[in-house]
Amino acid sequence: MSLGAWLRAEAIGLKRIALYFAGIGAAILITACAPYITVQNNAAFPVRALIVSGEMSQIVSPSPGEASYPEVPTGPFRAVVIPDAEWIEYARATRAYLNQQLAQADDLTGSQLLEVIRQLKDISTRIKQYEDAAAGRTAISCSGSVSSEDSGAVVITSTREGEIKLDCG
Fold first, then answer.
1. Same domain flag for 55 and 135
2. Within this chain, do residues 18 and 78 fall inside the same structural domain, yes or no?
3. Same domain, 58 and 121
4. Domain count, the chain
5. CB under 8 Å to 126, separation ≥6 — which residues?
6. What is the pLDDT along the chain (169 residues), one digit of tens a residue?
7. C-alpha distances in Å from residue 2, one per residue of 7, 10, 13
8. Which domain holds residue 43?
């Protein structure tokens, strides 16, 4: 292979590599610029939120104190929130385990026994809040809008009685 042919082959290879990285960069910029909705769960229990925007729908499950960030197209959206049914099964299993530990209190030290009682009270309170939130109530919803300049927000809270409140600000 002559030096000129080798240089042409190298130039073509470098152009392909440059185009490949330019394509990756463009994809990252397009993805990074997509609008999103912050779904912040400030309730005392996990929830599921269905976000419907245009022809898209997504389900997110932020834990208490956490947020999820689904990407959506620009325009109006609707958020529908319900308590997370899987969490109640976990909470009930945890309560059964703690009750079992309490039944074998002779095997626990004083501080361990106090910790089991504290955890049992905490999980029982959370279960009550969840059951109050889910008892005979339908899902709640709110609406909002996102643009290319402004992302949306859904803030989920709960009252002491376990009632879910929703704000699509």
1. yes
2. no
3. yes
4. 2
5. 44, 45, 91
6. 676 666 676 666 666 665 565 556 555 544 556 799 999 999 888 888 999 988 888 999 999 999 999 999 999 999 999 877 777 788 888 889 889 988 988 888 889 899 989 989 988 887 877 777 666 556 789 999 999 888 899 999 988 777 888 999 7
7. 9, 12, 17
8. 35-167
Measured CA to CA, the distance from residue 37 to residue 142 in angstroms comes to 13
Same domain for 81 and 42, yes or no, is: yes
- CATH code at 84? 2.60.40.2890
pTM above threshold 0.70? no
Q: Pseudo-torsion of CA 115, 85, 58, 75, nearest 10°?
A: -90
Can you tell me the distance from the alpha carbon of 48 to that of 166, in angstroms, rounded to the nearest whole number? 12
Q: Is 154 exposed, middle or buried (0-12, 13-18, 19+ CB in 10 A)?
A: buried
